[in-house]
Design a protein that fits this description.
This protein is mainly α. The protein has a domain of 78 residues. It contains 19 helices and 6 strands. The strands form 2 sheets. It has a 4-stranded mixed β-sheet. Strands 2-3 form a two-stranded antiparallel ribbon. Helix 4 packs parallel to helix 7 and helix 9 runs antiparallel to helix 11. The radius of gyration is 25 Å and the shape is globular. The termini are far apart.
Length: 488
């Protein structure tokens, strides 16, 4: 039995990356776009002896570990997009495998598998894979899951190496993206729910011996938090600016963003039958989940109940920091900005899978309809994901076309040349290039730092424009028209 279970687990670790590859294989080799070039431009001049500069590479964000991946890619492949695409697919595969690895410690393997599967194919994840600049979200989630899983192993088996491995993963999460701070609070939550001696705490009776023991364990977390804030102060001259967490959300924006989070298929340009099917599945899934919670919560498995509590806290703590972006700014029609929901989506899909499959059902075979239902949702997600990738693929193609044709039509510009792009196509809710992203792209394309680049809408002196190459982008025919300075 243990032998077959071992091979079943290995099969899952093989199946999940295969699903991710199948979902994103057609994006391999797509050109970089927008912020991808800006990130490369930030790291291209950093030498190995000055890697400390990665702490400031993203201007207002402290993400040296994430920026290190861009530094390595530029050193190995320059502006080539294929290594970045491969890295993003491998990263997403590692992330969903870590979802299964972590959740199977809390619940049975079946709901852990479906949670990982749904995260692998959710349309919310399209932006984090097809747009390389959004890789920080799956990367920080991977370190958070690794930290939580290792800390759980320490709690259950007392392995000291697991404890220090967890602390190292926490440090890596902090250096990847700002939401990594959340894991500093989730580890104490994990201890209070699953730690030995935590039972009396959950029953409302505090044991000082338990408190004293865990406070020593949490001391490195406090030290890392203080050190993290100190680094931010040294690097940025302050803790760092941020958007307000709460504001005054519009009812329509809040509704559509919330609906996109719960069931993102509705956003896509699908035919009426598929849209109706998706809404029906959403309603059925919601009824089943709500009914399971209301009817079966009390007699449910203790492990499942604890897991739902833990993941519910994770969901709330990851939603609050992005409240402004999602429920005020809103998710665009093609799910642009959905990367902010990647961490909450892990918790939400995990809770749904556990509620549907791992609470103690009154009927012996009731798990089979749950498996069928989640399988249908996964299939629908996969179809929707393919549609949601199209805008990004089109933006990638347009981006590559602009750079390629610019290089072909302006072969050898004079020193200190100026390029002025008279118009710029809008895709995925934004212009293909802005000044901050197009200038590093052009400079890397020509391997020159003296070229200045402007885009229509920038505040530019008219004398500068008169001495610039005027470039008009005809996106309908995928062509550029260039007017040299002498004829402006």
């Amino acid at each position: 039995m243990a032998f077959s279970r071992k091979y079943a687990t290995l099969a899952v670790y093989g199946l999940l990356p295969a699903v991710v590859l199948l979902a994103y294989v057609h994006t391999l080799g797509d050109p970089l776009v927008r912020d991808d070039y800006w990130l490369l431009g930030q790291v291209k001049d950093i030498s190995f002896s000055h890697l400390w500069a990665l702490f400031r590479a993203q201007v207002v964000y402290l993400r040296p570990l994430g920026m290190f991946t861009w530094w390595v890619e530029y050193r190995l492949a320059g502006m080539a997009s294929l290594p970045a695409d491969i890295f993003d697919i491998v990263l997403d595969s590692v992330t969903v495998c870590l979802v299964f690895w972590f959740l199977r410690r809390l619940v049975k393997p079946l709901p852990a598998f479906f949670a990982a599967l749904l995260l692998a194919v959710t349309p919310i994840g399209a932006e984090t894979v097809t747009w390389s600049a959004a890789r920080f979200d799956p990367m920080v989630l991977s370190f958070m899951l690794l930290a939580l899983g290792l800390y759980y192993d320490f709690l259950m088996k007392g392995r000291r190496w697991a404890y220090w491995g967890s602390m190292a993963a926490v440090a890596a999460a902090l250096m990847t993206k700002e939401p990594g701070v959340i894991v500093l609070g989730m580890i104490p939550v994990l201890e209070l729910i699953y730690g030995r001696g935590s039972g009396p705490f959950l029953d409302g009776i505090w044991q000082w011996a338990f408190a004293k023991r865990v406070l020593y364990r949490w001391l490195p977390l406090l030290v890392m938090f203080v050190f993290y804030m100190l680094i931010r102060y040294v690097v940025f001259g302050g803790i760092g600016g941020a958007e307000p967490i709460f504001g005054e959300p519009l009812a329509k924006v809040t509704f559509y963003s919330a609906l996109a989070f719960v069931f993102p298929v509705y956003q896509l340009n699908v035919d009426g039958h598929l849209l109706l099917l998706s809404l029906m599945l959403a309603v059925i899934l919601g009824i089943v989940a709500a009914g399971a919670v209301l009817v079966l919560w009390k007699p449910g498995r203790t492990a499942s109940r604890r897991a739902v509590i833990f993941l519910g806290i994770f969901l709330i703590t990851t939603l609050l920091p992005i409240f402004h972006f999602i429920f005020i700014d809103g998710i665009r029609q093609d799910l642009v900005n959905s990367r902010y929901l990647f961490l909450p989506a892990f918790a939400f899909l995990s809770i749904v899978s556990i509620v549907v499959l791992d609470l103690r059902w009154r009927f012996r075979y009731a798990v089979y309809p749950g498996v069928a239902l989640l399988s249908c949702v996964a299939l629908l997600y996969f179809v929707a994901l393919q549609k949601d990738e199209h805008p990004w693929e089109a933006a990638d193609a347009e981006s590559g076309q602009i750079l390629t044709e610019t290089r072909q039509m302006i072969i050898d510009p004079p020193p200190h040349a100026v390029f002025y792009y008279k118009d710029m196509p809008v895709m995925t809710g934004y212009r293909i290039f802005e000044h901050l992203t197009l200038q590093p792209a052009i400079r890397m394309e020509y391997n020159r730092n003296d070229i200045r680049v402007y885009v229509a809408g920038d505040q530019v002196d008219q004398d500068v424009i008169r001495n610039a190459y005027i470039i008009e982008v005809d996106s309908s025919h995928n062509t550029l028209k260039v007017t040299p300075p002498a004829t402006n």
